[in-house]
Description:
Blueprint: H1 2-15, H2 20-27, H3 41-50, E1 57-71, E2 74-81, E3 90-93, E4 97-104, E5 113-115, E6 139-145, E7 150-155, E8 168-173, E9 183-192, H4 201-213, H5 229-232, E10 236-237, E11 242-243, E12 251-254, E13 263-267, E14 272-279, E15 286-290, E16 295-300, E17 303-310, E18 313-315, E19 320-326, E20 331-338, E21 343-351, E22 394-403, E23 408-411, E24 422-424, E25 429-436, E26 442-446, E27 451-453, E28 459-460, E29 462-465, E30 470-476, E31 482-487, H6 490-494, E32 498-503
Parallel strand pairs: 1-4, 3-8, 9-14, 13-21, 22-25, 24-32
Antiparallel strand pairs: 1-2, 4-6, 5-7, 7-8, 9-12, 10-11, 14-19, 15-18, 15-20, 16-17, 16-19, 20-21, 22-23, 25-30, 26-29, 26-31, 27-28, 27-30, 31-32
The structure holds CU-O-CU linkage and copper (II) ion (CU).
The site of CU-O-CU linkage (C2O) has 10 residues, from strand 5 and strand 31.
Amino acid sequence: MASSSIDRRRFLILAGSGTVAALLASSCGNSSTSPVEANDATVARLEQQRRKSGARSVERQLVAAPTTVDLAGRKIATWAYGDTIPGPELRAKVGDILRVQLTNQLPEPTTIHWHGIAIRNDMDGVHDLTQPTISPGAVFTYEFALANAGTYFFHPHTALQLDRGLYAPLIVEDPNDPVTADVDQVLVIDDWLDGIDGATPEKKLTDLRQRGGMGGMGGMNGGTPASNAGAMSGMSSNLLGGDAGDIDYPLHLINGRPPADPATVTVASRARVRLRIINAASDTAYRFAVGGHRLTITHTDGFPIRPIEVDTLLIGMGERYDVIVTALSGVWPIVAAAEGKNTIAAGVLRTTDATASAAPSPDARPTELDGQLLHYSDLVPAESVTLDARRVDRTHRIDLTGDMMSYTWGIDGKSYPKSSPLNVADGERVRLEIRNKSMMWHPIHLHGHSFALSEGGARKDTVNVLPGETRTVELDADNPGQWMLHCHNTYHLEQGMATIMSYRR
Ligand code: C2O
Ligand code: CU
């Protein structure tokens, strides 16, 4: 491949220049290099550069606590930020400094991860890597500059807390955004089991471990459908390369509401509506559409692309898409169909002049769901965010590994924290080749950076990797620290499908 011939040519050039020992030391992860930790002076220095003089600071208080929410008349005990799911939307402008004081009233430790933000490493919220956990009763203040505009969200990075109600949008507006809209509406999609018929995320994980461990389901080889529990329960999808997920959730929510009591977006007829779609689910990809409308995709994972019009898109856990819809007069279903799971999350788009009073039926499946689908190869970055062409300094090849039978997941056969770190150095162009050797798809997320997809070049921080597939991405290592790279399936992360992209010096 081109990459290895470039690497080889560089090796030969360097071999003649006496720096080969240094190159070998760094590319072999030799222990003579030391990690750039979250409390390193370079982290603080870079943050100072992000802060422009006169920057506004946006201050918020958050309380993570047990609460009760109403899901279409069912009273459900869960954990949330405040009393709502999603938690309160945070909105700021690019260049602002966000200061969020979190009070932990949960019965267990927590942290907040600011998903997708190119943040200072010591505010990234990964316990025991970038900060200690925040104990029950304790208070911690997150403070960081917002260097990039876009659609982000935040959630704990602790145990299975994300599969409760602990998530909320973080929107960073760009005053010079070329995409204009009359209405800016966030739609957070989530799969829900907590408190339904006694279910909890912890019981579900126990169940998955036992169900897998019972044996007789075959191994990783052969590709027999019986080798994974998802296919056994009929949750399969061609779009996801087979097994759609591990858990058949009883409910799917948009903005914390199930289809029987949908969130309604009311706008003027002909309004240009910007929908910021966030998948905060734990084990579900969604096929998204608005009945009667086309979607103009403008951003993915916060970064602008050349606008493209489609009928529907597939969004994995941790991904975000911004789309523009021009509202036609009437009442229309907003649907996020749980891919491969035969059930939906739904909301309603209604114009103020609509005469129909009834909402579309809660199981409406608009034909747009089977229309023209957005593919990664359609995503072309806006010129302003196109990664410049540059020689790759370092390539890491990793395998996503694991299986339903043992219900262990990992990277290169090792579960976090045993997985080997991916060493990089500040200033390098890094290529990651992510190969999925398991029989299930994984949405892979990198903290603190965005990468460019080799296919099309769009900037993203989360990418779905299907079984048997290799996804290649490139990034500029420009944010020193220790950064997680992991599967955004909450249960796969808990079971170890994670490693660290580790800056070394
Ligand atoms: Cu939203 Cu480490 O993830
Ligand atoms: Cu996974």
